[in-house]
Design the sequence.
């Protein structure tokens, strides 16, 4: 039954992608489009197979950067959310600054970080952290604010401390929202890593794209784009699986059952 549901959710987008690739391939042949302008899917696949060894090395370098930056960004986002929720004064004073921090384009900030911290791994991690922490922090704060007030008041009347309420009620109740933010951050981490490598790196998919852009190797750029998409989907799927394992009961299910009753 689960396999049937999984297949029913997969086949419509899979068919759409296959049709898109067929139309793309046919268009490049029919209109005789130059390879350096728009390569066909067959050309892209051929180039990916030819350069598989070098691409694998660049992909591993980017993946290591993604995982490290994503872990740090998620931890910073949760720490910010918990701190602002636990201390209302901090939330009222610092939350507008969080919003303001997202108005600075990452691509504009990355060169400054390279100037300040050099071309090592630190500025790249900072870029990914800045990209990842905000969706996690906002989603976590929203989930914590939506805690069941009846249970909250009941635990207070039962003599539970603020810390106990936070650990045993607010955090578990906010877990679905937190993981929604983490899924967004997971896909953003790939973008942040590529942007960081654009600015300054000696390996990675972003570095590989910049090299191919200088050579007008459009087919290799498309290969890099395909790898970026695959990494984003893999990160999203990983967090989605984690969500299914952690969230076995959602508060909205109870509300739905009440409505049906």
Sequence:
């Amino acid at each position: 039954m689960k396999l049937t549901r999984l297949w029913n959710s997969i086949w419509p987008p899979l068919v759409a992608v296959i049709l898109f690739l067929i139309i793309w391939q046919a268009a490049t042949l029919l209109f005789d489009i130059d390879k350096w302008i728009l390569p066909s899917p067959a050309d892209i696949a051929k180039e990916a197979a030819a350069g598989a060894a070098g691409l694998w090395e660049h992909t591993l370098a980017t993946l290591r950067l993604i995982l490290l930056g994503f872990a740090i960004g998620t931890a910073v986002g949760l720490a910010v959310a918990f701190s602002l929720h636990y201390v209302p004064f901090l939330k009222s004073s610092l939350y507008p600054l969080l919003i303001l921090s997202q108005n600075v384009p990452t691509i504009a900030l990355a060169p400054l970080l390279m100037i300040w911290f050099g071309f090592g791994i630190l500025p790249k991690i900072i870029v990914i952290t800045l990209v990842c922490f905000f969706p996690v922090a906002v989603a976590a704060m929203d989930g914590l604010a939506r805690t069941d007030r009846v249970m909250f008041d009941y635990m207070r009347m039962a003599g539970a401390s603020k810390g106990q309420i936070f650990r045993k009620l607010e955090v578990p109740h906010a877990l679905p929202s937190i993981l929604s933010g983490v899924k967004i951050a997971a896909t953003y981490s790939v973008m942040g890593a590529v942007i960081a490598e654009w600015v300054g790196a000696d390996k990675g998919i972003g570095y590989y794209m910049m090299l191919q852009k200088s050579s007008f190797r459009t087919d290799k750029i498309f290969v890099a784009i395909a790898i970026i998409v695959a990494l984003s989907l893999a990160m999203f799927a990983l967090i989605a699986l984690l969500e299914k394992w952690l969230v076995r009961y959602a508060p909205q299910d109870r509300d739905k059952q009440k409505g049906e009753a």
About this structure: DSSP finds eleven helices and no strands in the chain. The radius of gyration is 23 Å. The longest helix spans residues 162-199. The domain at 40-247 is CATH 1.10.3720.10 (MetI-like fold).
